[in-house]
Please model this.
Amino acid sequence: MTTLAQRRRRDRLTVLSFMAPVLLGLLVFLVYPLVASVYFSFTTFDLVNTPRWVGLRNWEHLLQDANVRTAAANTLWLVAVLVPARMLGALATGMLLARFKRGAGLYRTLFYLPALAPPVAATLAFVFLFKPGTGPVNSLLAEIGIQGPLWFNSPDWAKPSLVLLGLWGVGDLMIIFLAALLDVPKEQYEAASLDGANAAHQFRYVTLPNIAPVVLFAAVTGVIQTLQYFTQAAVAASVASGQATTGGGVSSTFGYPEGSTFTYPLWLYVVGFRYGALGYANTLAVVLFVVAAAVTVVLLRRFRSFL
Model:
């Protein structure tokens, strides 16, 4: 006769059997690469020779690396500006579209379409549109008496230009906010209106609490994605400088102009694939993972206090 302990053991084995594919995937594609990266960060490694243990040498070099400081400063700037800008832009667009009754599907499609553009193609188009001398944007500004800036060719305007690019493709985030806004119970707005709440109060005490999980999701995913900001910065620098990518996909123009678009992932890529210093590249990767994990934990724990 089957005992209670045997039934529980059998149930656990059944649950584990269903979870096995997911657990195996996590071990192979997450845990193992992470452990390997931590190990290689203490070695000198080039994919040809056997990794050689060097202790804390890579970590000491990281603290003295001027390129790390420049790349980290640019990346943190993008996190501080691009992430809130995209969130506010997506929320504002979602609130606008939520009010549309006639033609709502058409407008939602039009606002979402830019998000479908491949990052490389979108960046190429933006660099062309904002070309200082002959670009349509500066030509239109000149028509109304405004001298347009150098945009992607200016150290002061290159990162704001990337922010504009991010705002143009905000449709992916907008559609998530729109779904959350449409799910807010109308009865709560009606009750707040009867209590004398104006539009600002309704947004603060009705809308925000209801869409808080989506705001948190947007913040966490936005920070993680921006910490890995690579494609747009690399393409914009190469195209704006007028030089093609060389050296097996590693451009000599990364960071143009004057290092203003040189992000942390770009330096990690250069270290690994131009210099072949994969041990040091793993050190940079581990730091990036730790920072992303730490920011995620802080956001998850502190987010409620901001509402």
Q: What stands out?
A: Strands lie at 43-44, 52-53. Residues 1-28 form one domain.
